[in-house]
Amino acid sequence: MNIIHISAECYPIAKVGGLADVVGSLPKYQSELGENSIVIMPFYDNAFTKNNTFETHYASVLNLGRDYHFKVLSLKDNTLGYDLFFIDIPELLFKDYVYSEDDTERFLAFQIAALNWVLQLKKENTVVHCHDHHTGLIPFMMSHCYTYEALKATPSILTIHNAQYQGWFSHDKVHLIPKFDLSNIGLLDWDNVINPLAAAIKCSWRVTTVSPSYMEELKEKANGLERLLQHESAKCVGILNGIDTDVWNAETDGFIIKNYSQKTILSGKKANKAWLCKEFNLDSKRPLFAFIGRLVGEKGAGLFPEIFDKALSADKISLLLLGSGHESIQDSLQALKPKHKGVYNTFIGYDEKLSHIIYAGADFLLMPSRVEPCGLNQMYSLRYGTIPVVSSVGGLKDTVIDIKNDGFGIRHDQVKIEDVAEAIKRATNLYSDDSRFKKIRKQIMSIDHSWNASAKAYIDLYNSLT
Fold first, then answer.
1. Residue 278: domain span
2. What is the number of structural domains in the chain?
3. What are the residue ranges in the chain where pLDDT is below 50?
4. What is the per-residue pLDDT for 81?
5. Is 252 a member of any domain?
6. Among the four 209, 249, 278, 293, which has the fewest Cβ within 10 Å?
7. Is 253 inside a domain boundary?
C-alpha cells in the first residue's frame, strides 16, 4: 500500500507541537510493517534545511491569484526510516517560522502543490492521510476540484490533532481554490466562513482523532464543530497515538546525563536529577516536579502562577518549568523566582536536550491540561520512570490510571487551583512512601506505548477503504 502523509510539521525537521512527533514516527512504523509510507511537508528556512542537502523530483507552477513556481525536493542521505518530500515555494513557504498571519495563502498553496505532484505519481492502492486544518482542503479538492478528477476514487483520511484550530478564512478568498462546481460550496462552509477542518470532516472518507476519549469529547466540545462531528460520527474513530521508543529510551538516549534501565533506575535518575538541581539551583532532597510545554490556556497555564506559589509554599517540593507562551504568564512565573529561590526555576523557551534530561531526572511530571487530544509528554515520562500528575481529559484519561485504582499515576478531575494542589500533595505523599514510590517508578518503565499497535490500527483502517 502507498500511504501519503501530508502535514505542516514533522520531527525532526519542523516542530511546534505533538503533530510533529506523530508525523515523524507513524510513517516509520508503517514502513517497518511493510507499507510504502511517505511524508510531504513544506520546505522551511530552518536549521534542518540549512544543514542537509536535497534533490529535485518535480517542478511546476501553481496559480493562487498569480503564478508561483514550486519544486518537490527529497532529502539526500535519508536515515529517517521513510521517504520525506518537501514542497518548496520560495515566496510563500521558505520562512523561518511554521505558522503566521499569512497561513491561508501559504498552506493553500502547499496543498495545491502537494496534490499536483500526487497526480503525477499515478500509483495504485494509495491513501492520502491529512493532518489537521493545514491540509484540510485536500479531501474536498480530491473529490470536487476538476483538476484532481483522477484522485476522486483515492481514499482520504483526516486526523484531528487539535480541533481548537480550524484555519478559518472568508468567502472572498474561495476563488483561490482550484475550480469546482459552486453548488458544492456548502462543503467548505461552516457558520458562514470557509472552514478547512470542517470541510475535511465532511469530505474525507474517515476521520480519526489521536485518542478514543478525545473523539468522544469533541462531540460535546469542539470549538463549534460539535454538531458536525455528531452527524459524521459513523466515519469517526479514535486511535491512540504512540511514541517512538527508539528516540525515547532511557537506556540509549544520547541527550541525558546518565543512561539507565529498570534495573539501574535508582542511579540513573539520581544522576539526571542531580544535574538538573545543580544547573537550576534546586534542592535535590525534595521531590522534583516538572512541567514541559506551551504556556497557553489549553494547558491550564493561566493558573500556573497561583498553583505553583501555593504548592511551593505548602509542600516541600522543588519545581522546574520548561516552556513558553503567553507573555503575561511567562512574566508571572518569572516573578515567583525570588520568593521560592532554591526550590523553583524556569527555562522560558524550548530545548530538546533539556526536555529529555527533565523526563529522566524529574520525579513527577505535571499536566493539568484543560484540553489534551492525546498527550505525548505523559508517555515520554512513563518511559523514563517519571510519574505523571494529570487532569482527566482526552488521551491523559486513556493512558494514566490513578494510584487509588491500583494504577501508577495521579489524576484530578477539575483544572482548578485546589484540585491541582491536592494532586501535588497526593504525589508528595507517594514520594514519602519510599518502597511504593520506587516500585511504581520501576513498573511504569515497562508500559508499552510504542507506535506498533497504532500503526497497525491505521493500516487496518486504510485496508478497510481500499
1. 265-444
2. 2
3. none
4. 94
5. no
6. 278
7. no
